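Session log. Operator J.P. requested a structure for one protein chain; no other inputs attached. Running the standard single-chain path with token output.
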Amino acid sequence: MSTVLVLGSGDVGSAVAHALYRAGHRVVLHDLPKPAHSRRGMAFVDALYDGKAELAGVLAKRANDLSALASMIECGRAVPAIDEAFRRVLDAVRAQILVDARMRKHRQPEPQRGLAPMTIGLGPNFVAGETTDVAVETAWGDDLGRVVWRGRTRNLEGEPQEINGHARDRYVYAPHAGVFSTNLCIGDFVDEDQHIANLAGASLRAPIAGVLRGLTHDGAYVSARAKVIEVDPRADLKLVTGLGTRPARIAEGVLEIIRDTPGQRR
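Structure written below.
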């Protein structure tokens, strides 16, 4: 099986790592120190804070340094998660496949072809055959999870999916950059206008009543305008943990690429 380096420990990157691990591939998950992903109940991100995290029956564990990475990959009992410098991790892992699942919606991806024998880009602004070898469509709709072998993925567009009449209004965006501070947890029930967190002197409050589906980890540094809180008005705890529908379909696209590429099938 292939060794795959997945960039981004949010819900999409974690779903990809989960699917690849379950398919028998050797997977390493990389992110920046103290990443600010908010859907933590649907991701492995907490492994980089707390040492380990479980997602739908798969365990991720933090690799404290590069020296621990090789033995963790060989062991195979968990997905290693690491926040060392990317180039050092890339050199150490020597992955056959690099998957960029950072979902940097407002940035143009840098060229990544040649960093691994196969490079896969997820999200808007990737150009298959230019920035990466291949890409996967991540926008909601009939094309979600579609493999793009040549050309551009769709631009960022539209509003978030509506839930019980709420779309963008169920999110809280950081008014400025700073350190995020909270005592609450994913799955906590909140009332409208309830204090949720502090951000560099600003009080961040629940926009609607419901259950916390998204909550950036206490102590994370967030950039201005980043999503830091999400309230699900359905107030159903089963809907704020586990693999999300969209990330799972994107992960299926990544698996399709590997299955259909000569030299990657096993």
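Operator note: Helices lie at 11-22, 47-50, 66-75, 86-93, 245-260.
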